[in-house]
Amino acid sequence: MIEARGHRVTLAPNIDHRHRGYLAGSDDERVEELNQFFRSSEYDAFFFARGGYGAMRILDRIDYNALRANPRPVVGFSDVTALHQALAIHSGIGSFHGPMLNLDFHDGLSPENEEWLWAMLAGEAPLVRAFSENDIVQEGEAEGMLFGGCLALTTSLAGTPYDFWIEDGIWFWEDVDEPAYRIDRMLTHLRLSGRMKKIRGVIVGALKSCGGDAEMLALLREFFQAFDIPVVQNLPFGHHGNNLLMPIGTRVRLSTGDRTFTVLERAVSS
User: Fold this and answer.
1) Does residue 270 lie within any of the structural domains?
2) Which are the contacts of 41, defined by CB distance < 8 A and separation ≥ 6?
3) Do 77 and 151 contact (CB within 8 A), yes or no?
4) Higher-scoring residue by pLDDT: 126, 18
5) What is the CATH number of the domain that holds 233?
6) What does pTM read for this prediction?
7) Residues designated as active site
8) pLDDT at 24
């Protein structure tokens, strides 16, 4: 799919490696490969094959100066959330929560999500995405910088040097295989740490195997009712695949009045 658009694709040498059953190679191998790619000016963007566990293990050894000096899109989701947060803090760049090779590109993106992806990476703006009235959890209008990712990773990184949160931003999150009581616990952890006081809006993705729809809707309504902010759910990003590209660090608008999510500015520089 990527090559069909005229791009040349290079695969990391460790893409099919296995270590201890859940890592694509040792920490030394993975961070060395990542840093070599980041340090090279030959590559214009970085897509992850999958978001398997292990990104947190190498955050303290990544060459953040390499991407600060030559910013390029970094695209992935799930445990790649750890890398997104670390890059925002230590490289000062916004990366992209979005499609990965083994799921989204393998199974295929919908035409509108594929168009959104390449338009955003080409620097087009504004981009507008409509959502259903049924997706509204709480009414409201908001503008702010977009941030977020996998809820479990955001919670796990709280209190570390890779704890990225925009107080007056719009927070998006998703997760997989987390029953409602664990989603409740993670949200409560973030609330008790003071994270919810100033955020302007919340966008919840397509949760996968996280309890029933009615159960999750009840939880979201109960949790966010204390905050006068718009909240929507079921936007098409997350572990179901067919991921909508979400540009971290870019100004967006969330409106339940006209039921739109709008990326207001270019997500990449020229």
Assistant:
1) no
2) 70
3) no
4) 126
5) 3.50.30.60
6) 0.96
7) 78, 174, 239
8) 86
